[in-house]
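Hello again, I could really use a second opinion on something today. Take your time with it, there's no hurry, and the full record follows here:

___
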Amino acid sequence: MSNTQFAEPLPSDMISVWKQVFERQKAFGEHAFDQLDDEQFFAVLSPGLNSCAVIANHLAGNMLSRWTDFLTTDGEKPSRDRDHEFDPPTEHSGGERARIMERWNAGWGRLFDALDGLTRADLSKIVTIRSVPHPVHAAVARQLDHYSFHIGQINIIARQLVGTDRWVWFTLPPGATKAFNEKLMGGGSDSADQHA
């Protein structure tokens, strides 16, 4: 694969910023999973939608494909069966849930290992996804976009299953923004107004 140099240097902290965002997305997803019992984990809210189990399995499959030999092989591995990732599990048990979560953790592990192996010199290299060339920074941005979309789905599904009255918020709960902003930006109304 060929390398391309960009006119402007990429930020020196880009890899660490990526890791922080991916770590937050992983934690956001797991915060939702932790609030679900096994029945809810496999529940489908409406025909045509996916369960949290299916989305977790799909994300794991994507990660294992995209991040294995990230710099040297196409991100869509011949061994991947993407369509099968969306098949509803035939078994709705704690054991099946554990198997999916083991795969989930393996996918995230592969992602973080790949990021840990990157250097600044790698950021302008070209990788392919389904034979389409992507600069490394664009390939990573593509995965951030994809994963955050699905993590959002997981949280919406989980919140509906758990119920708003029992849901534990990962981010600020409704109605808590003003107090949080005042604490963060200095209690005075003038200070809050300046940051609106």
Summary: Residues 188-196 have pLDDT under 50 and may be disordered. The domain at 14-163 is CATH 1.20.120.450 (Four Helix Bundle (Hemerythrin (Met), subunit A)).
